Amino acid sequence: MSTQYPALVVVVPLLSAFLISAAGWANKRLCFPIAVVALAISTYSCFGLLVRVLNEGVVVYRWAGWDPPWGIAYYVDHLNALVLTVVAVVSLINLVATKKSIDEEFPDKLGPFYSLYVLMVTGCLGIVATGDAFNLYVLLEISALTGYGLLAMGSKGRAPLSTLNYLYMGTIGACFYLLGIGYLYIVTGSLNMVDIAGILPSLYQSKAVMAAFIICMVGVWLKMALFPLHAWLPNAYTYAPSAASSLIAPLATKVMIYVMIRLILTVFTPEFAFTTLSVSNAVVWLAVIAIVVGAVLALQERSLKKMLTYVIVAEVGYMVGGAWLGNSAGMTGAILHIVNDALMTLCVFLAVGNIVYKAKGHCFEDLQGLFRKMPFTMGGFVIGALSIIGVPPTCGFFSKWYLISGAIKAGQYHFMAALLFSSLVCVVLFFRIIEIGYYEPFSEEHGHGHGHHQEPSMEEAPLSMVVPLLIVAAGLVVVGLYTGDIVEHIIRFAIPKGLA
Amino acid sequence: MKFLGLVIAFITGVFLVYAAVDFPDWADPESPASTHVSPHFIEKTMEETSVPNIVTAVLADYRTFDTMFEATVIFSAAVVCFFVLRTFLKKEEREERLYRHVLTGVTIRVKEGGRIPPSDDFERIDDSWIPHDLIIKTICRLMVPFIQIFALYVVAHGHHSPGGGFQGGVILGASVIVLAMSHDLRTTLQRMREKVVGILCAVGVLLYAGTGALCLLLGMNFLDYSALAPILGVGPVTARSHGILIVEIGVAIAVMTAMVWIYNNVSSRGNYNEGL
Amino acid sequence: MTDFAQLVVAKYNYWIYITLMMIGLYAIISKNNLVKKILGMNIFQTAIILFYVSIGAKKGATIPILEHGHGPAHGAGSHVVHAADYMNPLPHVLMLTAIVVGVATLGVALALALKVYRHYHTLEEDEILAQIRKK
Amino acid sequence: METVVSIKPLLAVLVSLLVTPILASSRAPNVREMWTFVAAGVKFLLVLSMLPVILNGTQIVYTVAEVIPGAAIKFKVDSFGMLFALVSSSLWIVTSVYSIGYMRGLKEHSQTRYFCFFAFALSATIGVAFAGNLLTMYLFYEMLSLATYPLVTHHQDHEARSSGRKYLLYIVGTSIGLVLPAMLICYDLAGTLEFGTQGFLAGTGASKSLMAVLLVLLIFGFAKAAIMPFHSWLPAAMVAPTPVSALLHAVAVVKVGVFSVVRVITEVFGTDLLFSLNFSPIILFFASATILVGSLIALSQDNLKRLLAFSTIAQLSYIVLGVGLLSPLGMTGGMLHIAMHAFGKITLFFCAGAIFVATGKKNISEMIGIGRRMPVTMGAFFIASLSITGVPPGGGFISKWYLVLGALQAHQVAVLVVLLVSSFLNACYFLPIVYKAFFCPPKEVMFKGGFQEAPLFCVVPLVITAVISIILLLFPQPFLQLATMTVQGLM
Questions:
Q1: Which of A185, A201, A184 is nearest to A271 (CA)?
Q2: ∠A110-B267-B139 over CA atoms, to 5°?
Q3: Which of A328, A417, B248, D269 has the fewest CB atoms lying closer than 10 Å?
Q4: Structure letter (DSSP) for residue A490
């Protein structure tokens, strides 16, 4: 069976999506178990695949039995396998963690919800696994379309509106990518990434290739919400249902960053991206601006969820900048940050989900006294926050470490300054939240001398929501401690030797 | 905003024109696109899949993995429309309703909590109800079977002529939508219930993906139809051809129902009354 | 000058698609009405579809359906097929997918626009924003 | 140097973490406090059990995870780390006793949280003491900052909120803004962050100006050392309950800062490197300025805890000053001062707390004649203030003696003057308090009622620490031995 892992990763959730949709008409209670089983199998296959890749190197899977470049093939290498695993794990945990809130929010639409959920995951997994440039586009659209559906079901009015804006931007982004692939196709005649990479070196001076690269990048940046193309993201995520935002916020942008790195590393080769085209500096500057603007805009927000969405905008800047530093430390940082950022975004968004579930709001005023009411949720939130700030031993510190050391090696001190600046702003951002949650709404006569006042009782979210959150929070620390192994055994192989 | 749009569109245009200079001329037989991968398809399709329509062969065999997701895209679009728009009115029974006596054309209003008239002669209508035009109604009803037969032809003949599951499915869907437009949504829903549409849509794509999974269970790669040879009792190459037909049928079902499903939800804004 | 004219004529397909695309892009950014934006988006997608399909064209070639393939009597491989005789099938296949994606996106976009309309009773973006600000 | 691999350092760090869940779940105060004692005791014993090995001149190392090449999360127990660990783990036991008396005496709220984060903070302190490289030290340093935030803001009122903000701004702001980039540049230069007696920056060939920048970044970055101008968090943090101020802001937190600075001077740069670059005056200048200014401000304080805070700021810089002298005797004195000051200052804080518990007084002007009511407390206060001033029978005499010798050894007359002037200032702000307490007639009515001490739980610990302060003068082992061993290793 192990030769079929690449197929199982994508196919099992896909099949389950149809089953869920059909089952939704018969018995709604069947939907959740099917989804869990499917994603669990997919996650298991991802781990199996990762182990295989670690032992054997690149795993090639030929769909329908055709050889590339005629058929579609998956090339699963260290980079894919790592991101695949993260995607699968994140989606599985989120599925379990948000069951209660889904049950509450969509009691009569469970079938379509889980179906879309699983399809969204399938799309992300497929994007990460595929070795065919056009196949990537189709999967991009699957994950996007299902994402629109999930996001639009949040608050009435605002959610559909912001999702519609997301749809415009997302479609333009995907179309740009498609156009770029068309340019590549017109000059190489191939759609297979490895095949294209083999043909391209003789064409590096062609304007068409340059245009293809830039168009693809712009498309991908649009979809990952890199400043100044980020305008769609904050509203779309803020007004979405918690279950959807805690799935899409960790995955969507990170998967697009994977696509960018894949294009740079495999399709166009780093040599072309960083040397032939002299745009690295400009992109790093763009990333710097993205980080600073994201951080500053986050400071203005009075809603926890919206604040976090601006943090995502800043985090996108981290990864884009890291990848474009053009050295292996920066690239390592960017790849590591894909993993870490997915986990820590999941962590904070799950916490927000729990808060919304109990406190019925995500504005700052709703957070007062939460440490007393929901200590475990807030504990998880704090760990996620520390990771975003970059406090060791949480994983966020280590990816930041690689990013900064990449910046130092590349001499891009402004990028280092931006990272430090955003860390400091994150301290302010998160401690503001923690402060609000820590101090009670009633403040007078507090403290000593009144030890026996009635302490408000705990109103923690259900166990099925809290336990996954705490698992993710613990995961942040564990991943942090295993950073060395991840870099040494996985990421090192994902980076081409040529990169200094 | 207008100015910004102009500037962006203009910059993009100039950039694209600049890059297009390096492209091969239109219809140049020597262009890379025509010389690298595609000749293999043109020259080998017949012997590898025994399907003369190369587009079908590439669509449903060489790049069948893409096509499966293509069907999935349409499926997910349908589900999204349903998910976003559909409103289940639990309180419907307590609202005011209008009924029309078909034979006499008398309209009665049933107030809150009132009983539905027991006779079959009454049909439920909305307050924006307009009488159907008899000519349109009749002609459309007459056309529907022909449209559907043609659609089946398109599906089945996809191996040899332009056509296939998507095209046939769309035509099939159109036949139902024609009915819905010439009559009203309630009439169509009586013939094709929401539940049936929903389940068929999933079943259609499931047929596609399930075929692939069957190949996988038979020991070959996913969607490698030659694995079906022992079951179908034909050689591996012919099995590919048959496999293509199976998935095309699945696509046709999925596309038809997806079209109908999207129409149902969008035209009635999700409350499944008369529709347009 | 003739070189330039030749260049323009020989690559006319690209100019058409670029023009269409600019129109679509402009509409998406500048239009105030949400449905007009959706239309712009569709024009944008169509431009790209046109571009792809034009890649597949080949002078002196016919549609990619093998002429001698009809009927089982001929069987596989009985005629030698020359690649130059048939158009490139791949772009057509790809665009079949892209068209379906376009339709799907359109459906979803309309559904969302409907939902927006149901809540705000208008599709003009500035009016909607004014309503939001008022709250 | 000989090394032994052992998991003990990790256990010593984690042992207080392990009781954290039990603390959190326990609703019965007695069980909760018993667990605190168990944790404190086990931790002390673990530290103590490593002492003989260290005294033999062996190092204990343990690598937890190789997170970044050349910068693992790694523990290394050497003589200097041992000195600090011994001080802080032994004082935790005493403070636990005191905490019980204080917190129960005042019927404080959220005592479970309090004990929980207290244990957490101690973990981090031991972690810093045993850190084997700059990364690990940074890790536990940050952990300590965060763990102490709920302690500092324990009262959860407006004052606590603004102080907490200031605390975090200074501590976390500097560690991220200054230490992190400096650490990364160091890593970029040296490819490693391992502490070594020669300093890992030696031999990297970086320019003098870059080195100077790094030194400044690192010394100010560890803002817990409260070197001016990064000192004002410390008086602000005095809003915390007194046991917190006592252990954390006289011993754990500030000493962690100073400890880190000393580590930076000795094992990141290395004495030879600093000597050859002639950076000693930079350190001496900032340290001397802090000593004098801190002492002068202390003179003008009326709030006892604030006075102690400024005194602490000044005393911390003694340690930096001693090490910054780069002479063997000066360094010995500086290191020894960690221990001596800890026992002295904790006694003073305990006294301040005991006075507050018993009478509710915070200001010195209200304590006239208090010696009649609380003679034991004020007696201990007297001994401790002698120790801080550097007069026998206080143990502080020894460390100051070494500092003076070190200044002479390094031919730094200016430093000598600073030391003497500041000792005089110390006496100026401490002795009047004692004098007024015992020899002035009480103004307050409540002091006339005769002998009435704070609860036993409060008084016993402060007597113990005061006695230890005296004992240390006579038997300064093992601290003196550890300090001299460290200096021998460095020179």
A1: A201
A2: 130
A3: A417
A4: I
CA distance B16 to D17: 62
Residue-wise pLDDT tens digits, A111-127:
999 999 999 999 999 99
| Tally of CA atoms within 13 A in the half-sphere of B50 that contains its CB | 19
The structure tokens 């307590």 sit at B94
Per-residue pLDDT tens over the stretch A207-256: 889 999 999 999 999 999 998 888 899 999 999 999 999 999 999 999 99
Q: Say how far apart CA B262 and CA C6 lie, in whole Å.
A: 47
Q: What is the pLDDT of residue D479?
A: 84
Q: Are 3 or more Cβ–Cβ pairs between C and D shorter than 8 Å?
A: no
Q: Which one, of D245, D345, D246, D226, lies nearest residue D289 by Cα?
A: D226
CB contacts, 8 Å: D109 with chain A: 446-448, 450-451, 453, 455
Query: H helices of A63-206, where?
Result: 78-97, 99-105, 110-129, 133-152, 158-188, 193-199
So what's the pLDDT on residue A298? Answer: 93
Q: Does residue D14 sit at the A interface (CB-CB below 8 Å)?
A: no
Residue A395 forms part of a structural domain: yes
C119: containing domain: 2-59+83-134
Contact (CB, 8 A) for B49 and B233: no
* Contact criterion met (CB < 8 Å) for C104 and A152: no
Neighbours of chain D (3+ CB pairs under 8 A): A
Contacts of A74 (CB under 8 A, 6+ apart): A6, A59, A60, A61, A63, A80, A129, A130, A131
- Rounded CA-CA distance A137/C92 in Å is 16
- On whether residue C33 sits in a domain, the answer given is yes
Q: How many CB pairs under 8 A join B and C?
A: 181
What residue spans of A29-98 are helical by DSSP H? 31-56, 78-97
Percent residues over pLDDT 90 in chain A: 64
Length of chain D as a residue count: 491
On the CB side of D334, how many CA atoms lie within 13 Å of its CA? Answer: 32
Which residues on C lie below 8 Å from A160 (Cβ)?
112, 115-116, 119
- Domain coverage including residue A375: 278-442+458-500
Q: Is residue C72 part of a domain?
A: no
What residues have CB less than 8 Å from A395, skipping those under 6 apart? Answer: A336, A339, A340, A343, A344, A387, A476, A477, A479, A480, A483
| Averages of pLDDT over each 10 residues, chain A, 500 residues | 86 94 90 94 94 91 88 91 94 93 88 94 94 93 94 87 93 94 91 90 87 93 90 91 92 93 90 84 93 93 91 93 91 94 94 88 82 87 93 90 92 92 92 84 46 60 90 93 90 84
The DSSP symbol for B90 reads G
pTM higher than 0.95 for the full model? Answer: no
The Cα A478–Cα A482 span in angstroms is 6
Q: Which of C51, C97, C112 sits opposite A138 (nearest CB)?
A: C97
Do residues D71 and D133 touch, judged by C-beta distance below 8 A?
yes
Which residues 32-71 of chain C have a CB within 8 Å of chain B? 32, 54-61, 63-66, 68-70
Side chain identity, residue D173:
G
Task: Note whether C116 contacts A161, CB cutoff 8 Å.
Answer: yes
For β-strands D3-5 and D59-68, DSSP reports them as parallel
Backbone angles phi, psi at C12, to 5 degrees: -60, -30
Angle at D395 between CA D390 and CA D401, to 5 degrees: 50
Q: What is the mean pLDDT of chain A?
A: 89
